[in-house]
């Protein structure tokens, strides 16, 4: 990392031009090629897949998206001539528009009579486009929408439903991404206090996500990529891109404030935090790849798009970021920090007062804090017990949208099950007995047998309940398990509702294997990183707790409907079947980032002092602020996807925002450190035989200065202790410096709220330890260090000045 970072820093103009050229080139290619996203639900060995295969064989020409025009009259009947005179000309005009293949009107003979409700107040017409919904230009669909709604008048309501119509009413592309970026920029500015420093993570995220989306668009011509993949790639790409750059920029700013040259600080930041970013990005990709074990081919394209975006975001953070740091130099600091650095010299590294006080409080009351955190997470996880997987449809759209109004009108006029009819597909045999059995089945509102084709008969069954209700799921089981066998024919139940049910069942069956896979991978990675059995076991347990609580929030909001109106997210319904796999993958990857960042600092203290309480306290005090800032940015980015107009992306955004918030603000800031205090030294236990056999993986190497000629060399160690007054009160913010015999400063820190400090010692030998406090004077002592850590407490008296040569 050192050589790469230095090269990028010194050749910053070349690196910037390469990235800009690559982004423009890939963007131009993607625009010229267009998109070819495809939602391929391949569910082998399922009943609905068998029905689909028979339908495709018998009716190969049923292509193109089918949408609906629905109208309702407040008085009279839709058969009235006044109503027909307004609707039929609009339908005739729509039939002649580009992209429209056919229009089936309820006013066209006896066949159309079934498209009028029994009370005569609601009717619908079917529009068959020449292409699939995602292939139809929005301009063409908008003309259809405008033409149909122009027929409205007082007392006559006209609404449209269908996939193509839904695409038109979505907010402008990029709106959610822009809102997320603006929110992240505000958090970054508050964290850094510098406009230039704020722009760095934003720029890295824009380059990473831009390259990822354009590349995914190109790959969609060769691989089946679902249309939700770009949204999910944007969601995760913005989050990790900004967070990874935040970690590196924070380390770089810290180095400059400690007196380092900007180039050396950037190189050091990339060699420390940059290595952690590589590790974190790798864990996210591994977690995403874990989706492949489910063998749900719909998710393969999601894995490709999101993983590619994460890889490009990591690449931007490790190559483009050091180049941008080279352009800014010391301006990565705020003006006030630059003035203070020039006037007062380098400042010691220290944790904020609030972070240090919270860390000390966790150490004092670990049982109480751990119990409170567990109770909060358990309460939030209660709704997950009623989790029901399924698929959202236009009945879940916002009540103000035309697709939702059309859905509700069809349900009002033709029954709740009309929006999700079942297709019973049979081959040969006596279908009359099957039709009779279906009509006598409770929960069936209507049965219609279509003319057979190539020996295949399709029977359309309209349930009495909505497509998303549990009663409809039970009806599908009844038809499959009782009605069809009783009729003695070979038949299968298909249709969108049956496919959604089968998809949810397959996902639920394979979810345990998926969870076991990603938990095992996480355990092995943390075992290598921290050489401990307890730390990865704790992390695995925390991931399960975070998953349960975040899904509890998801169920409460989207399944129970709590706060849906406030968020403008439509109507409650089941949780999308693919969401648990995607959310668990992303949650696993992101929580690993925070776990590595937190525990690596604790591990460094443990290696120096072998004092678990101090290691946990100092690690939490020095990392909690950055973790919380990163999590707040993630939450802002994820919540912005509520504005995407896509229910799946909105559901994923809310779920991931809840997961990250709970993981960072409760688990990593409270429960993890409290549990580590309670576990004591066993946190770092690893059997000797296993330690010898495990390869060494350095996530974030320790920064050490090269010894000068004549200085002692050997194994690194530390001096630690407390700075107190004569009365025993802790002295906070005292400057503790370690000097060599030649007068070179080797380390410099600030005492925490409890007066504790720790300085790194490069090797055994004699050193000068200087302690200075504005309120209590200064003191310096010579300290001899052996091969182990030295405990050295310092007592300061007010006005005291003490020095040694």
List the helices and strands and how they pair.
Layout: H1 2-10, H2 12-33, H3 47-58, E1 66-73, H4 81-95, E2 100-104, E3 122-129, H5 138-149, E4 156-161, H6 163-168, H7 175-192, H8 195-219, H9 229-257, H10 262-289, H11 300-328, H12 335-344, H13 353-364, H14 366-381, E5 389-390, H15 402-414, E6 422-427, H16 431-439, E7 444-449, E8 456-463, H17 470-487, E9 490-494, H18 496-530, H19 534-559, H20 564-567, E10 575-576, H21 579-609, H22 612-639, H23 647-679, H24 688-693, E11 717-725, E12 735-739, E13 745-750, E14 756-761, E15 765-773, E16 777-785, E17 790-791, E18 794-796, E19 800-801
Helix pairs in contact: 1-2, 1-10, 1-11, 2-8, 2-11, 4-5, 7-8, 7-9, 7-22, 8-9, 8-11, 9-10, 9-11, 9-22, 10-11, 10-21, 13-22, 14-19, 14-23, 16-17, 18-19, 18-21, 19-21, 19-23, 21-22, 21-23, 22-23
């Amino acid at each position: 990392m050192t050589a790469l970072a230095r090269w990028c820093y010194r050749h910053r103009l070349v690196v910037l031009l390469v990235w800009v050229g690559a982004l423009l080139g890939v963007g131009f290619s993607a625009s010229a090629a267009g998109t070819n996203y495809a939602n391929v639900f391949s569910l082998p060995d399922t009943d609905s897949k068998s029905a689909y295969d028979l339908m495709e064989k018998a009716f190969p020409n049923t292509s193109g998206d089918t949408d609906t025009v629905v109208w309702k009259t407040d008085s009279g009947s839709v058969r009235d001539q006044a109503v027909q005179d307004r609707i039929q000309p609009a339908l005739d005009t729509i039939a002649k528009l580009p992209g429209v293949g056919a229009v089936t009107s309820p006013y066209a003979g006896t066949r159309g009579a079934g498209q009028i409700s029994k009370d005569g107040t609601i009717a619908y017409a079917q529009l068959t486009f020449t292409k699939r919904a995602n292939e139809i230009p929005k301009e063409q669909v908008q003309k259809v929408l405008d033409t149909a709604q122009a027929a409205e008048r007082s007392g006559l309501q006209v609404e449209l439903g269908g996939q193509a119509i839904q695409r038109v009413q979505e907010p402008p592309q990029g709106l959610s991404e822009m809102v997320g970026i603006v929110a992240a920029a505000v958090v970054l500015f508050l964290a850094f206090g510098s406009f230039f420093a704020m722009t760095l993570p934003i720029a890295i995220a824009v380059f990473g996500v831009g390259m990822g989306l354009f590349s995914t668009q190109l790959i969609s011509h060769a691989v089946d990529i679902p249309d939700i993949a770009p949204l999910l790639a944007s969601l995760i790409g913005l989050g990790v891109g900004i967070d990874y750059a935040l970690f590196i920029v924070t380390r770089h700013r810290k180095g400059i404030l400690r007196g380092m040259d900007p180039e050396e600080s950037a190189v050091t930041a990339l060699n420390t935090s940059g290595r952690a970013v590589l590790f974190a990005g790798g864990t996210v990709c591994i977690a995403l790849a874990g989706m492949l074990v489910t063998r749900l081919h719909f998710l393969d394209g999601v894995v490709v798009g999101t993983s590619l975006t994460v890889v490009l975001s990591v690449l931007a953070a490790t190559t483009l970021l050091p180049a941008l740091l080279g352009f800014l130099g010391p301006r990565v600091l705020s003006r006030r920090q630059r003035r203070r650095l020039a006037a007062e010299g380098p400042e010691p590294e220290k944790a904020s007062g609030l972070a240090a006080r919270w860390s000390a409080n966790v150490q004092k009351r670990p049982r109480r804090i751990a119990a409170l955190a567990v109770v909060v997470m358990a309460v939030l996880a209660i709704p997950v017990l009623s989790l029901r997987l399924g698929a959202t449809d236009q009945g879940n759209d916002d009540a103000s949208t035309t697709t939702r109004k059309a859905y509700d009108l069809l349900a009002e006029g033709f029954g709740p099950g009309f929006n999700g009819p079942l297709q019973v597909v049979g081959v040969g045999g006596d279908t009359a007995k099957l039709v009779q059995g279906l009509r006598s089945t409770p929960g069936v509102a209507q049965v219609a047998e279509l003319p057979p084709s190539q020996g295949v008969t399709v029977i359309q069954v309209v349930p009495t309940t909505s497509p998303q209700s549990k009663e409809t799921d039970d009806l599908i089981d009844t038809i499959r398990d009782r009605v069809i066998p009783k009729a003695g024919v070979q038949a299968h139940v298909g249709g969108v509702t049956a496919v959604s049910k089968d998809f949810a069942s397959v996902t639920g069956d394979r979810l345990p294997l998926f969870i076991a896979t990603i938990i095992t991978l996480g355990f092995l990675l943390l075992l290598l990183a921290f050489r401990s059995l307890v730390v990865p076991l704790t992390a695995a347990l925390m991931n399960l707790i975070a998953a349960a609580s975040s899904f509890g929030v998801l169920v409460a909001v989207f399944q129970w409907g709590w706060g849906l109106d406030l968020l403008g997210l439509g109507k409650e319904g089941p949780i999308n079947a693919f969401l648990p796999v995607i959310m668990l993958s992303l949650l696993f990857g992101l929580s690993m980032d925070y776990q590595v960042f937190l525990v690596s600092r604790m591990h460094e203290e443990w290696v120096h002092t072998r004092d678990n309480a101090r290691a946990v306290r100092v690690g939490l005090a020095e990392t909690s602020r950055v973790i919380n800032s990163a999590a707040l940015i993630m939450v802002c980015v994820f919540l912005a996807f509520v504005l995407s107009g896509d229910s799946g992306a909105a559901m994923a955004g809310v779920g991931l925002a809840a997961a990250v918030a709970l993981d960072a603000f409760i688990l990593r800031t409270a429960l993890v450190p409290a549990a580590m205090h309670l576990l004591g030294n066993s946190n770092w236990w690893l059997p000797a035989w296993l330690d010898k056999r495990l390869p060494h993986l350095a996530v974030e190497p320790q920064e050490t200065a090269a010894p000068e000629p004549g200085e002692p060399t050997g194994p690194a160690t530390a001096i630690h202790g407390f700075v107190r007054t004569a009365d025993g009160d802790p002295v906070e913010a005292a400057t503790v410096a370690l000097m060599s015999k030649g007068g070179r400063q080797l380390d410099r820190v600030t005492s925490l709220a409890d007066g504790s400090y720790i300085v790194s010692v490069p090797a055994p030998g004699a050193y000068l330890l200087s302690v200075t406090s504005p309120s209590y004077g200064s003191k310096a002592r010579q300290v001899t260090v052996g091969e182990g850590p030295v405990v050295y407490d310092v007592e300061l008296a007010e006005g005291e000045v003490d020095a040694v040569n």
